[in-house]
Amino acid sequence: MAEVYLRRLTRWQAEQQREAVADVYVMAYHGAAGAEYRDRTKFLRRFEQDVRHDGFDMVVADAPGLAGCAYGHRLERDGAWWADFPVEVTPQTEELTASGRVFALTELMVLPEHRRRGVATRLADLLLSRLAQDLVVAGVDRDRASAGVPELLRSWGWKELPTVRPTVKTSGRQVWARSPVR
């Protein structure tokens, strides 16, 4: 199998690569049969919004062709990002958010043929390596939780944030957090 090379993209480069990134999204997540167009369209809308955030950062894996990517952005200082999740919010989390020191890992995806080769770990490490943020958070869809994502995050030192309203219908996501690699 071909060697996988990582590189960081600027915001402009990320926007130029959006179609290839959307292709990776569809292939990486294998939505319901016939739903690829809808899934791709929804992803492209989210990606367009994510790229516009302050502190947007993106890393891609090439092997040749796009094999995966990871990206995220700094969370808004005035926003309560946890409002859509039933998670326990500490005063420290509120303070970190207000001071602009929380980074959201928005997406981490690797094509199936490149999985279990350390590509996801390398992508996450490179993306988080130059962060000055004190807290990194990621939402994981509960349907992906059965695919081993929680175990992977735990192996990377992430912790699931405790819930305060477990019976409330949420966005169907678990929230994980960790301090960035320094």
Commentary on this structure:
The protein is an alpha+beta fold. It has one domain (5-178): Gcn5-related N-acetyltransferase (GNAT) (Aminopeptidase). Helices cover 35% and strands 24% of the residues. It contains 7 helices and 7 strands. The protein has helices spanning 11-16, 18-29, 36-52, 91-98, 119-128, 142-145, 149-155; strands at 5-9, 57-62, 66-74, 102-110, 135-141, 159-160, 173-178. It has a 7-stranded mixed beta sheet with strand order 1-2-3-4-5-7-6, with helices on both faces. The radius of gyration is 16 Å and the shape is globular. The protein starts with a strand and ends with a strand. The mean pLDDT is 81.
Q: Helices, strands, pairings?
A:
Layout: E1 5-9, H1 11-16, H2 18-29, H3 36-52, E2 57-62, E3 66-74, H4 91-98, E4 102-110, H5 119-128, E5 135-141, H6 142-145, H7 149-155, E6 159-160, E7 173-178
Helix pairs in contact: 2-3
Features:
182 residues, alpha+beta, Aminopeptidase, seven-stranded mixed β-sheet, 7 strands, globular
Number of domains: 1
Helix/strand order, N-terminal first: EHHHEEHEHEHHEE
Overall shape: it is globular
* Percent in strands: 15-25%
Number of helices: 7
Low-confidence stretches: none
Q: Mind telling me the CATH class?
A: Alpha Beta
Radius of gyration: 16 Å
Helix content: 25-40%
| CATH homologous superfamily identity | Gcn5-related N-acetyltransferase (GNAT)
Per DSSP E runs of 2 or more residues, the count of β-strands stands at: 7
- Helix/strand/pairing class, anyone? alpha+beta
- Enumerate the strands of the largest sheet in spatial order, edge to edge or round the barrel: 1-2-3-4-5-7-6
Oligomer: single chain
